[in-house]
Amino acid sequence: MVRFLSPEWLAALERSLAGIAALTTASSQLDLVIQQVVLGAGSYSITLRDGTVTVTPGMAEHADITFTCGLDTALAVAQGTRNAQDAFAAGELRLGGDVATLVRVAPTLAAVGDAFASLRAATDWSAPPA
């Protein structure tokens, strides 16, 4: 089991994302950094560039798009009990950065589907490491 948001979990997320052919194909045409900030629990970024997908712990030096939410929302989205669009509509997920870029890459991101699905069974959902 890997604890949610731990370095081991982030490495597993990277492997999961890298295994999605549609995403790696799309990343060959993108130069995009998406940052996730989980208030009080940590942050990470996903970089799509040159046909690769990387996940990096901590704050990105430059993020094109930043999603910010509390731990309960992050857990619900990662566990598949809530989708990001509903959390955004309810004001529980904030969006920052270049919204036009997000609109432009939305079809690519939609092709990813549920990137967290393969991680759920191997994830310890207790409090993330500080």
Characterise this structure:
The protein contains five helices and seven strands; from the N terminus they run E-H-H-E-E-E-E-H-H-E-H-E. The chain is of the alpha/beta class and 130 residues long. It has helices at 7-18, 21-27, 71-79, 84-89, 99-112; strands at 2-3, 31-38, 42-49, 52-57, 65-69, 93-97, 123-124. The protein is globular, with a radius of gyration of 14 Å. The strands form two sheets. The chain has a five-stranded mixed sheet with strand order 4-3-2-5-6. The mean pLDDT is 89. It starts with a strand and ends in a 6-residue tail after the last strand.
Structural class: alpha/beta
**String of helices and strands:** EHHEEEEHHEHE
Helix content percent band: 25-40%
Spatially, the strands of the biggest sheet line up as 4-3-2-5-6
- How many DSSP helices? 5
Q: Compute the number of strand runs.
A: 7
Largest sheet report: 5 strands, mixed
End-to-end distance: 18 Å
Give the uncertain stretches in residue-range form: none
Shape: globular
Q: Determine the mean pLDDT.
A: 89
Strand content: 25-35%
The gyration radius over C-alpha positions equals 14 Å
Q: What does this entry show, briefly?
A:
With 130 residues, the chain is of the alpha/beta class. The chain has helices at 7-18, 21-27, 71-79, 84-89, 99-112; strands spanning 2-3, 31-38, 42-49, 52-57, 65-69, 93-97, 123-124.
Q: Layout of helices and strands, plus pairs?
A:
Blueprint: E1 2-3, H1 7-18, H2 21-27, E2 31-38, E3 42-49, E4 52-57, E5 65-69, H3 71-79, H4 84-89, E6 93-97, H5 99-112, E7 123-124
Parallel strand pairs: 1-7, 2-5
Antiparallel strand pairs: 2-3, 3-4, 5-6
